[in-house]
Amino acid sequence: MPSKLRSSSLLPRLLLLSLLLLLFYSLILLRRPFTSNLASPPPCDLFSGKWVFNPETPKPLYDETCPFHRNAWNCLRNKRDNMDVINSWRWVPNGCGLRRIDPTRFLKRMRNKNVGFVGDSLNENFLVSFLCILRVADPSAVKWKKKKAWRGAYFPKFNVTVAYHRAVLLSKYQWQPKSSAEANQDGVKGTYRVDVDVPANEWINVTSFYDVLIFNSGHWWGYDKFPKESPLVFYRKGKPINPPLDILQGFEVVLQHMVSYIQREVPAKTLKLWRLQSPRHFYGGDWNQNGSCLLDKPLEENQEQWSEQRSKKN
Q1: 88/86 Cα distance (integer angstroms)
Q2: Could you give the CA distance from residue 197 to residue 265 in angstroms, rounded to a whole number?
Q3: How far apart are alpha carbons 103 and 99 in whole angstroms?
Q4: Residue 170: left if φ>0, alpha if ψ -120 to 50, beta else—which one?
């Protein structure tokens, strides 16, 4: 009988000792750096890759009947040549896969959230295609142009809004005409005042509405858009910047101020992205000189370099 009592009294002590040893061993493991013989996979850079031609690439998810198309830019309805060839090109990143977008999966993940695009026509054209893709998952989508949006759509099935705010320079700018007498003297009809530290009215008060914001600017920063007869004049804190900036210097200063504003004023919860430029690829003239885009394949690297050099010369 005493031996049974002795063993029964030892059991809790052994259990307690085992738990203490287990805890002590766990703490030692947590303090030791974890090493693995398995090599971590290389990071996936979606921007490093190449265009691959594949005639078996699936057709676009939408057709010419999508109500969000811009009429003049509806290549499907306007029967642009070689659309089958154009749609056979696919971007393939180096060393990683890029799946085709699944509109239903995207809208489910973005349920009760809003996506905003701010910038020039590159963002607008992307938005139009994006809206048509998402409409496949929610045919009840309706046009949405609230909060100073240039265009957009609301997807009621998922309570998601996707919209575009037109702000080609990102910062605020306005036309200041000269009198006829002054214009005749130097040939300058007027100037566009650009406040480098003030966001455009089209987006300054709407950033808190969006959970994701995609910004871009670039194609309007050229002398084809603002020739010497109507140049940009840059202001900071309400006063002209001296010495005056040329258009590319102004672009750099605007970007610095807009990025600073976005980091400072846009809510931290908002996912903020910046979209890069695509090269100019008009054929037979510029956009305002009867140029057109007849290419049915991506630009080669030397063509892109030529385009960049040409933009710098202009």
Answers
A1: 5
A2: 13
A3: 12
A4: left
Q: pLDDT tens digit string along 252-273?
A: 999 999 999 999 999 999 999 9
Q: Which residues pair with 265 in a beta bridge?
A: none
pTM of the model: 0.80
Q: Which amino acid is at 232?
A: L
CB of 119 closer than 8 Å to CB of 168: yes
Report which DSSP code applies to 207. Answer: G
For residues 110 and 122, give the distance between their C-alpha atoms in angstroms, rounded to a whole number: 23
Task: Output the pLDDT for position 306.
Answer: 39
Strands, E, within 237-310: which ranges? Answer: 239-240, 271-274
Please provide the distance, in angstroms rounded to a whole number, between the alpha carbons at the two ends of the chain. 104
Residues 6+ apart with CB under 8 A from 124: 70, 117, 150, 151, 164, 166
Residues in the chain: 314
- Asked whether 129 and 87 are in contact (CB, 8 A), the reply is no
Q: How far is CA 248 from the centre of its chain?
A: 22
Tokens of residue 282, six digits: 């008009």
Residue with tokens 């009840």: 140
- d(CA 66, CA 139) in angstroms, rounded, equals 10
The distance from CA 264 to its chain's CA centroid, rounded to whole angstroms, is 19
| CA distances, 32 to each of 6, 27, 29, 246, 262 (Å) | 39, 9, 5, 57, 41
State yes or no: cis peptide before 243, omega within 30 of 0.
Answer: yes
